[in-house]
Each structure stands twice: as structure tokens, then as C-alpha cells.
Design goal:
233 residues; alpha+beta; 6-stranded antiparallel beta sheet; 9 helices; 41% helix
Length: 233
């Protein structure tokens, strides 16, 4: 089955179990396919993507609904060396969220501490160009989960050299000028963080997300350094 039909079946909840499993694996390894899914979801509901439909496609064996935590967790959106980010729905407010938690092999005290530290640092940096932290909850497996604003968009690294896509998505005819506007937004986030005594230490295009309306977010504060920590040492 071609990708477009499979994605439509995923949103409609009409895929067979084996097809769902195959597509879930493909989504984890193909960023372009994830972008196509997001675009299709937006076309289906112009106001926002409907995560409640996407959650039906989660075929993992672990429980997806953690009533105590108040978050319904679904398919994986992305993964890094230590953590993975999954699509979720915050039940009390009925809104889509991103849920960041540790990979199974990294669920140890040290990495749990790192995850909570990152959430604490990011949570106190309330700025338009920094992703808001909504909550920290305990998952069904007892491991902390960080509930974040769901950012629909693409990384700056995927857009910065593509004038056609930038023009199509944001109406910007001058690629250099558009890239400079992203740099300004990132600089504002860094300036705010510095005023709060926090150094990011991993600024790069792949850690910058651009939303569908041109919103710019500086991501991944996992190795950020608080100057107060240096003074204490």
C-alpha cells in the first residue's frame, strides 16, 4: 500500500494490525513520513491535528492510558540517545501534548535525574521561543514523564537550505532574510536564558523547531548549565 493511503488509514483507524505495526516502525525512522502525517492531519482538521485519532494507532503492548497521570500516551514522534518523545493527550484539558520519557535501557537513577533536571531548567524559562513544560507525571511503569507543548513543524536544519519549502510554508521569498529572522528568535531565547543564569551549550539548527505559523523554538536543554551550579562547585 502506498504511503498516502497507509497514512490515511492510520488517521481513520482502518489499518490492519500488521499494517499498523509496519507503519509505526516506518514513522520512527523516516522524518519525511512523519511530516507527511502531520500535514495530512492538519488537512483533516484545519484547527489542529486530532491526536485522539492518532492514539488509536498505538500498537505497543504497554498500557497507553495512565489515568493517575492524566495523560493518554500514543505513538512515538522521535527519539534521541537517552529519551524518546511520544504523542499524548492531556485528559483534564483535552489537548494534544508531547510526552518525553526515557528509553527502556536508560531508565536508571542517573538518567532519571538528568531528565528531571532538564525539565526543571526548561520549566523556569518561560519565553515565547522556548517550549513550555506543562507538567511532570509518573508513567504506568513508574518512570517520570515530562509533559510539553506539542510543537508541529520542522527543524531549522531541514528548512534552512530549501527556499522552495520556506516560500511554500511561510511565504518568505528571501531565504537569507528568513534564516536571519530565525537566528534573531534563537538569540532572544538565549538572551533570556542567560539573564536567568542558564547556558544552553548545544545550539545547532537541528535543535531549533519552526512551527507552521513561523513560531521558533529552541529545543533540547539536556546539557544546559546553570551558573549557580558552577559557583557552588
Amino acid at each position: 500500500m502506498e504511503d498516502a493511503k497507509r497514512l490515511r488509514g492510520l488517521l481513520d483507524g482502518t489499518l490492519e494490525h500488521d499494517e499498523q505495526a509496519e507503519l509505526e516502525t516506518a514513522l520512527e525512522h523516516r522524518p519525511a513520513l512523519r511530516r507527511a502525517l502531520a500535514d495530512l492531519a492538519l488537512q483533516t482538521d484545519r484547527t489542529r491535528p486530532d491526536p485522539s485519532v492518532m492514539l488509536k494507532a498505538d500498537i505497543r503492548t504497554t498500557p497507553t492510558k495512565d489515568v493517575g497521570a492524566g495523560v493518554d500516551v500514543g505513538p512515538t514522534l522521535g527519539r534521541g540517545g537517552m529519551a524518546l518523545v511520544r504523542l499524548g493527550q492531556q485528559l483534564k484539558l483535552d489537548r494534544p501534548v508531547a510526552v518525553k520519557t526515557l528509553r527502556v535501557e536508560r531508565q536508571n537513577d542517573r538518567d532519571i535525574g538528568r531528565l528531571l533536571r532538564e525539565a526543571r531548567i526548561t520549566g523556569k524559562l518561560e519565553h515565547p521561543n522556548i517550549v513550555p513544560v506543562h507538567d511532570i507525571v509518573q508513567g504506568a511503569d513508574g518512570v517520570p514523564q515530562v509533559v510539553l507543548k506539542l510543537i508541529e513543524g520542522e527543524t531549522w536544519s531541514a528548512l534552512m537550505s530549501d527556499p522552495d519549502r520556506v516560500r511554500q510554508r511561510f511565504g518568505a521569498d528571501d531565504l537569507l532574510e528568513w534564516n536571519l529572522s530565525v537566528i534573531v528568535a534563537v538569540s532572544r531565547a538565549l538572551s533570556f536564558a542567560h539573564s536567568r543564569g542558564v547556558l544552553h551549550r548545544d545550539v545547532k539548527p537541528s535543535n531549533v523547531m519552526v512551527g507552521p505559523f513561523g513560531e521558533v523554538y529552541l529545543l533540547d536543554w539536556g546539557i544546559a548549565l546553570e551558573l549557580d551550579e558552577v559557583k557552588r562547585d
